[in-house]
Specification:
This protein is an alpha+beta fold. Strand 10 and strand 11 form a beta hairpin.
Length: 429
């Protein structure tokens, strides 16, 4: 009888150890390397052993698998021995022992320990890591052999180290926002960080038509008047034609020159050297270049060397944090819903973006990018306020409602019913 009590004790110990190994697996895999780094910095007990294990996940996983299989096999053997001793060497005894072992190991050796470990990953990983690390040193020869065999079979170690991808991080950010741990604006900013390096200068620059400029024959008084009217702190200065940018004028230099000399002087004496950049340059590279050269504005050139716009530090930062409005700016949204199927649209919005926002199918072309470009191409002449561009096949009517000189500022977009196909078209279709 004492022998059976001993078997029962051994079986219970095997259940506990099975639960220990199963829980260790979940706890060690659940805790992130970032969390481990924090625990090491806080000098939590067991954190050093945990950091060692996380550096080599195949090491602790093989250790856990070896330990778990040993105790599970031992538990099954002990249960079978007890069943045979009590019921005799019959198929019924083996069946009973198998059912009991499977149920107990499933509940107490797998399901419950893993559920508990998933909810207490940090605490358990700190407690279990020193033990698992010690066992991994004992099983070191077995682990070495296993890794060698696995390496020959797969061309790598036993378990490939998973590299976290950019898409996975974005998914975690989205999950964080859905669960309320990340605010909506924080989510948008974090996504902008990932898109930052893929953004080109031409996507954020102020286009040439919107750039306020000075001729190099202007005086400092004229420059100050323009600064006052526009609210800008820096202006490009051109020589003979606007494709020839001579330099950048800073409002502080213009003010100081007047204060020091008490008279108006030519602005050519106040210009700083312009920084020229191609429109295809990535804005993260440009931001670094602006920091190194300690300048806030760059002149953007196309592939032919023609002046196409300017880009400032503010333009670049707005890609991360959204529009930055100062005391001279007025907030005017690109797209405003006026009524049912009627929208006020900024003429500078890209056709591609407008299609996405309103689920439209406006035609795109290499000859234009903005909705203003589309209208000008379709009209075929210099537009005027009130001109209408019909895009019947796309179910859209565009009306020019605001202009500055010959430049279109805003349009009214009206959704219309696309024409029904004729009987002849239906037959041919």
């Amino acid at each position: 009888m004492i022998e059976y009590y001993l078997y029962i004790i051994i079986f219970i110990l095997c259940l506990i150890l099975s639960g220990f190994f199963s829980g260790s697996e979940v706890a060690l895999f659940s805790i992130t390397r970032a969390k481990v780094r924090t625990l090491v910095n806080d000098k939590e007990p067991g954190s050093e052993a945990l950091a060692t294990l996380k550096k080599s996940p195949d090491r602790f996983l093989i250790t856990i698998l070896i330990g778990n299989n040993i105790v599970n096999i031992l538990a099954a053997s002990v249960a079978t021995a007890v069943a045979i001793g009590l019921l005799g060497e019959t198929g019924f005894a083996v069946t009973v022992s198998t059912i009991v072992v499977v149920l107990l190991l499933l509940v107490f050796g797998e399901v419950w320990p893993k559920m508990y470990a998933s909810r207490n990953a940090t605490r358990l990983s700190l407690r279990f890591s020193p033990i698992i690390l010690f066992l991994s040193q004992i099983f070191a020869p077995v682990i070495f052999i296993f890794n060698k065999i696995a390496g020959k079979m797969t061309g790598a170690g036993a378990f490939a180290h998973h590299m976290i991808t950019e898409e996975e991080i974005k998914e975690w950010i989205d999950v964080g926002q859905e669960e309320g741990t990340i605010e909506k604006d924080e989510q948008e900013m974090l996504h902008s960080v990932f898109e930052f390096s893929d953004t080109r200068v031409r996507e954020v620059m102020t286009p040439r038509i919107d750039v306020v400029m000075l001729e190099d024959t202007s005086s400092s008084d004229e420059a100050l008047e323009l600064f006052k009217n526009t609210g800008f702190s820096r202006l490009p200065v051109w020589h003979e034609n606007i494709d020839t940018i001579r330099g950048i004028l800073n409002v502080k230099d213009a003010i100081f020159s007047v204060l020091e000399t008490h008279e108006s002087i030519p602005i050519v004496e106040l210009l700083s050297e312009p920084l020229f950049v191609p429109e295809t340059k990535n804005i993260d590279d440009l931001l670094r270049e602006l920091r190194v050269k300690k300048t806030h504005m760059a002149i953007v050139l196309d592939e032919y060397g023609s002046f196409v716009g300017i880009v400032t530090v503010e333009d670049i930062l707005e890609e991360l944090v959204g529009d930055i409005l100062d005391e001279f700016d007025t907030e005017e949204h690109e797209l405003v819903r006026v009524a049912e199927d009627v929208y006020s649209v900024d003429a500078r919005i890209w056709v591609e973006d407008l299609n996405k926002q309103l689920d439209l199918h406006l035609p795109m072309s290499e000859t234009y990018e903005t909705i203003a470009g589309l209208v000008i191409e379709r009209l075929g002449n210099i537009p005027r306020i009130g001109d209408v561009c019909e895009l019947a096949e796309e179910g859209v009517r565009l009306v020019i409602i605001q202009m500055t000189g010959k430049r279109i500022n805003r349009l009214k977009l009206i959704r219309i019913q696309p024409p029904e196909p004729s009987d002849e078209q239906e037959r041919t279709g």
